[in-house]
Design a protein that fits this description.
This protein is mainly alpha-helical. The protein contains 5 helices and no strands. It has a domain of 106 residues. It starts with 18 loop residues before the first helix and ends in a 9-residue tail after the last helix.
Amino acid sequence: MSENSTPHGSQDSFMARGGLWVVIQFVLMVALLFAAPMSDESFPNNEMTQTIAALMLTIGAWCGIRGVRDLGQQRTALPKPLPGGQLVTTGVYALVRHPLYASLIWLGFGWGLLFGSALTLGIALIQLVFLDLKARREECWLRDHFAGYPDYAARVKRFIPGVY
């Protein structure tokens, strides 16, 4: 066992790198996925809600695909940055600081609208609050890891370009 690895929490352990955040996020994503088709239609599911749902799902998919592509080798499932990693501020990351989280938010609300499920929209709202908290924690690590992060954060909004 190396000097940095201990049974209960080295700097590189799953929990030390934000593993609990990932576990909770996974639970919320599964809840969203299954709640929509299993719940009764809670509100009128008309052409307008379907159009809005399709738009939200498209935006969510685009943000997610671009975020993964633009992050490239810097991508990790855990919120704490990779040792020796580089800050990505180009592509979709020039529009929002957390496109992968934004993707999940758009997809969650779009999914709830698609099925007309108030339960799913409620879970999507919980997921939004959770991802905002997770992003704030991740940003503390990013500030500690990357000298340029505070300037980047001052220029680029968290989830919605120019808004938030």
